[in-house]
Request: fold
Amino acid sequence: MRVTFWGTRGSLAAPGADTARYGGNTSCVEVRGPEGSVVVIDAGTGIRALGQSLPADLKRVDILLTHLHMDHVQGLGFFAPLYNPGVEVHIWGPASTTAPLRTRLMRYLSPPLFPVHLRDLPCQLILHEVPCERLPIGEMVVSASLVCHPGPTVGYRIESKNGSLAYLSDHEPALGARNFPESAEWTSGYAIAANVDLLIHDGQYTRDEYLEHVGWGHSAAEDAVNFAKLAQVKELVLFHHDPNRTDAEVDQLLETTMARMQTPFAVTAAAEGTTVDIGAA
Reply:
């Protein structure tokens, strides 16, 4: 599988901030299966450029939404395949006790927030609610589980013959976990992340910043590393960067975190335009 980062921020980068290397778009990640199937995780502003890069003969694309906060859906209406009648677009998103997924998406894809109604999109649109049973998407298998973040939110696990990845972009495993990070019991997201080759995980805060934002649904970078240790992953990519953080500050957060911790796996910070090949020789 090839993973490409198209948006890595928790909100649009602050105007004037130096984000040349890490980028300023909101959450969006592309996963290509070994046989060419395309899965898009989250529909932040990075999805616009992703859509323009897809093959002209693409027949199906699957979009996995972790939740419906604006930074994760604000690019959806600008995704080119939605306007192609020859493409089958499957959107997977968290179920809610208050309204179906279609109704909640229509709040954004309709005036006055957007000029085009969801019902008028010319693609072949199919909506699905998760969590549900393991989902075969082309040559990949997707699992979803509810995780700790305000509002209905899921994390995703994607597996293929080449390897596995977990995506927990907005996640606060330290909240409510008994003896975190000493035990997998009660720890949000553990089943999704256990033993994956690549974990993409929320690392928005420094330790001091997190103490001022407990319960907001995001993690200190140190907690992301501790969670990755608990799940025994092979590689960790810190994600959902603070929109006010410059490239130099992201570098500093990563450097400070790793100076305090020892890990048996690589830890990097997600940057737009970079790729990770899972299962490559």
Summary: The first helix runs from residue 47 to 53. The first strand starts at residue 2 and ends at 7. DSSP finds seven helices and 14 strands in the chain. The helical segments are 47-53, 70-73, 101-106, 190-193, 207-211, 221-231, 247-260.
